[in-house]
Amino acid sequence: MSTSPPSVAMTQTVTFEAMQSFAHATDPRLAEVMSLLVKHLHAFVAESKLTKEEWLRGLDFLNASAAITTEERNEFSLFSDIMGISSMVDVVSQPEGGTPSSVLGPFHNHDSLLRPNGVDLTDAQPGERVWFHGRVVDSHGQAIAQAQIDFWQNADNGLYPAQDPEQDPHNLRCKIACDAAGNFNLLTIRPHPYTVPTDGPVGALLAASRRNIWRPAHYHVIVSAPGYVGLVTELFPKGSDYIDNDTVFGVRPGLIVPFEPCHDSEVAKRFGIDAPFLEVTYEFQLVKQG
Ligand code: BEZ
Ligand code: FE
Q1: How far is the CA of 111 from the centre of ligand 2 (A)?
Q2: Structural domain boundaries of the chain?
Q3: What's 80-285's CATH class?
Q4: Residue 49 carries which DSSP code?
Q5: Quick check: CB of 81 below 6 Å from ligand 1?
Q6: Total-model pTM
Q7: pLDDT tens readout for residues 197-209
Q8: How would DSSP label each residue in 63-108?
């Protein structure tokens, strides 16, 4: 039996009525966002001529994501990341004039310890030593006193503490209060490319789509200071594998940094390491709260 396609008027009526159904939300922003979401989702259904089977597969995907999601592992966040939605939100909510933001990812830990400026995070573990230092400034290049750095990365085996019972939960992560001139510095190791978790429905989707599952190496940094818009960002070593093919679309040109050999013997002595070691310098720029 062949069915005739729905008339344009009929689809438009459904879309209009569904959009209108949010018009009286208590929060006008909720009304705006939900009505636009309906508009674009309906346009997607109409344009792709989505079948019932495909819609049910989509619901199965969401159910499987819910079943695997826990406090420690959120499949919906990962879905948002690999769809580029997290990065789109970063891009559209980025205030003008500051350092570009990038994805938070699932391994941030609110309980990171406040360590002294100049901390050595390496604790005799394997990995190329990197002296990471820089400054936090405002949009005029003036130092911001009282800025805080929240830093985390993966270990030499490519894993974060949450994925590796051998690692201390505080390994290679810390908070640092910058000095009065906005300066910070710490000793860490070179980060490594990393695959997003692939044992859930998102992994199955990536495989079925023949998509890359790797992220380039990166440092995660959250920079905050009273009176300024907080910055969640990442720094990527220039030349890292996957820098042009990040599966969560987090790389921005201003966030790619050279890891250069450094021969500074004072710094080597201070950290008890051999020169040359690697050095990364970065100036984070924060935008004043409006
Ligand atoms: C990460 O940076 O570790 C990450 C980001 C997004 C999804 C998965 C992992
Ligand atoms: Fe990461």
Answers
A1: 17
A2: 1-50, 80-285
A3: mainly beta
A4: T
A5: yes
A6: 0.92
A7: 999 999 999 999 9
A8: HHHHHH--SS--HHHHHHHHTTHHHHHHHHHPPTTSPPP----TT-
